[in-house]
Predict the structure.
Amino acid sequence: MKNRDQIPGCENCMHCAESIFKHLSPEEHALIEKEKVCNTYKRGSVIYHEGSRTNGFYCINSGVIKIFKTGIDGREQIIAFAKDGGIIGYRSILSGELACSSAKVIEDASLCFVPGETLISLVKTNGNFSMAIMQQTCKELGEANSFITDIAQKTVRERLAEVLLNLKDIFDLDQNNVLQISLTREELANIVGTATESVIRLLSEFKHDKLIDLNGRKITLLDIKALEKISNAFN
Amino acid sequence: MKNRDQIPGCENCMHCAESIFKHLSPEEHALIEKEKVCNTYKRGSVIYHEGSRTNGFYCINSGVIKIFKTGIDGREQIIAFAKDGGIIGYRSILSGELACSSAKVIEDASLCFVPGETLISLVKTNGNFSMAIMQQTCKELGEANSFITDIAQKTVRERLAEVLLNLKDIFDLDQNNVLQISLTREELANIVGTATESVIRLLSEFKHDKLIDLNGRKITLLDIKALEKISNAFN
DNA sequence: CGTGTGATTGACGCCTGTCAACGTCTGTGG
DNA sequence: CCACAGACGTTGACAGGCGTCAATCACACG
């Protein structure tokens, strides 16, 4: 248990207009503030592991987390990313199941752990908060369904283009159109659902076609229109 | 608007111990009973369509519905099935988005339509009901994530075996191990996420290997253990 | 009996996964 | 400062799974 003083109080991290916690009353905020336990994690740390019983969820103060499932012979399938302002691990609390995925740190992170009972009691007593969580869940469900359709019907090439565009939406570009997230080729492959070599080959192809530029793990999106065309943007 | 008298009142159709509605008070039950509009649908009818704005959800009194997304050149990807006791269309109500999928009748169905405001107000005021809906959503989310991993990592052969087993869990077998659901080869392909011809070939192969038996659309599961082995059951 | 939908089978070829070899970079230890 | 190990990235060769196209069959329906 690290020093909690390293982490700002909720009044700083939860006030983002995007956060689910905007629906809480001051008393409810205070409750979470009292119950939470904060911690920092280095890249590579596992926050929770598939199949384990979790007894709380995490608010992300800073950093980036990947959420993935482990499939055949240990290959990861990345399901989602979470970054500052997001929450992870709430699904299994609410469904009362074991964690259906693992969470691992991609960029050094500071997280606040909140006990599951707190979440459940808030859901039961605060209708607006409950609706907000529900909305988040339903949104994720919609995205998951879209992804199923994509992965079932699109080629690897189309999916890679789409993944690059999704990453842009999640992590933004800098002023030079450089994707503000650093992933290994293997991680990219584990999002797209393909082999590492295929990702490498297709990235080279995209680069050759002047759609993107590559600098190690830094990817520059040069021609977003063309990428959208390739990804067959029906979404 | 068909004659509502054809459809039994909630006291008959909602009492199934499985139903979400068990968490409602008698007054809340009465509210739904008053607001609902029931209807029957023939095979092939579309209940709601992807991209449309829905203003309520449906309880399934009887029949079978497929939930699917439409992908490239109109190909369906079947996301889920719903049968008696289930509810459909609630996701877009709760998330406030447009419908992300379509719902079509596979076996003649009778459904009760309940306005969205009713659902939202119940979610906001009844903590236990809210938790139950949340649990259903989270469960579906977990299943969707599993399916993403499968479809990304498994071969068509493995997925087909798995789909047959899933169908068994949803629709049961009769005393002769015949799957109690009738799907076209194309629909099977649209679950597995492959071409119709591939499904046909693999089914023949399974039949040749004495894993299943085929009689038109009736599929008999002869060797469930072997199917599980093929499906690489990690779930 | 013609028409249409669904099921089947065969031929063909490309996409993509796998295996293997090699290059690159970084950090560690001598 | 250099050597080496290890992780990651890249490229080539190769085969086979699976999608596509096309022809044929089976069956129901008006």
